[in-house]
Amino acid sequence: MKIFVSLIVQFILALCVSGVALAGPPAVFGTGIVGSVHDFSRASWNPEALSYKGEICNVCHAPHDGGRKTYKAGLLWNRQLSSSTYIMYDKSWSPGITHAQDSQPTGNSKLCLSCHDGSLAIDAFGSYPGTGWRMWDENTNKVIPRFKDAAGSLDMHGTHPISVTYAAPGGGTAKGFKPATNTWPGGLTIADTLQNGKVQCSTCHDVHDTPGEVVPGTQLLRAGLTAKQGGASALCLTCHDK
Length: 242
Ligand code: HEC
Ligand code: HEC
Ligand code: HEC
Ligand code: HEC
Fold this sequence. Notes:
Shape: globular
Number of helices: 5
Strand order of the largest sheet: 1-2
Structural class: mainly alpha
Bound molecules: heme C
Strand content: under 5%
Distance between the termini: 69 Å
Order of helices and strands: HEHHEEEHH
Radius of gyration: 21 Å
């Protein structure tokens, strides 16, 4: 027994010395949804994670609507949607915005914001009412950077414009932009990643961390930001013709 205990102590010490974090490995990006930042099947807040039997997709999508009506957001959505009002990055803030834009976030961006705006319990999905664990309380650094200002407003003035049309007003390639047929490093065109022609969160980020579509080492981005990630500001230069 004594030997057994000392072996366990030695094992734990070895783990610490070798730098293995007991809390779980750091996130690696571009390797698929299993084990990614959006794999909550083992999250401590997931009521289904008991004995590590939780599902991955179910936290966001359900194959059948349980009479809960969240499916109306599209994509078999299994979570409540935020009813927050956002201060948009729009032409009233920056006259340089000339493309048609929705007055509030729409489409896929609403799905991301059902967690990332910090207003809803993250453990509220399916029929679980949630216990109030919100990203803003517990995980401030993963809320959209500088999103909530001191007054508590959901302020998008510090976030790239979303729910905005890619093409020029009236269609075609806009001045200062690459054609929508231009491709991301993974092979999809810009147009493939727009939703109804609009730039949403999912245009720059791939929530599922799909191998080949997310550049490893980036925060779920479809193109890199640094030379090491495939080109300085490659993400921005995929769209902006600068
Ligand atoms: C953290 C939430 C989340 C999880 C977990 C998640 N998804 Fe999604 N999924 C989304 C969002 C948001 C979108 C819309 C944005 C987009 O299309 O990239 C989406 C879109 C989709 C789409 C339609 C567009 C496409 O990419 O083909 C499919 C299919 C899909 N998800 C399947 C799955 C499956 C299967 C799983 C589990 C292995 C899963 N998702 C896990 C959030 C999630
Ligand atoms: C998917 C294409 C796309 C990507 C990628 C992209 N942008 Fe944009 N960007 C747009 C669109 C569309 C607009 C809105 C243009 C308009 O309404 O005139 C915009 C607007 C902007 C604006 C606001 C301009 C103004 O007049 O207020 C800035 C600044 C900007 N982008 C910088 C960047 C930077 C920096 C990156 C990389 C981190 C980036 N963009 C990545 C498409 C993109
Ligand atoms: C179920 C709630 C949920 C939904 C829906 C969701 N996310 Fe997340 N996301 C999280 C959480 C929680 C983290 C932090 C995980 C961690 O730190 O381990 C995260 C992390 C991230 C990160 C940062 C990765 C890092 O660690 O640096 C990005 C980028 C991201 N999400 C983008 C998105 C986008 C874009 C969408 C929609 C297409 C989306 N998320 C939908 C909960 C969600
Ligand atoms: C124009 C491209 C673009 C769009 C659109 C975009 N992001 Fe990002 N996002 C980035 C880049 C680039 C980074 C990493 C650099 C940074 O933090 O500014 C990032 C970082 C993040 C992070 C990580 C923050 C952290 O502190 O680690 C989250 C979470 C995130 N985005 C969520 C979202 C959500 C939700 C939306 C939609 C409301 C969105 N993004 C729209 C380009 C974009």
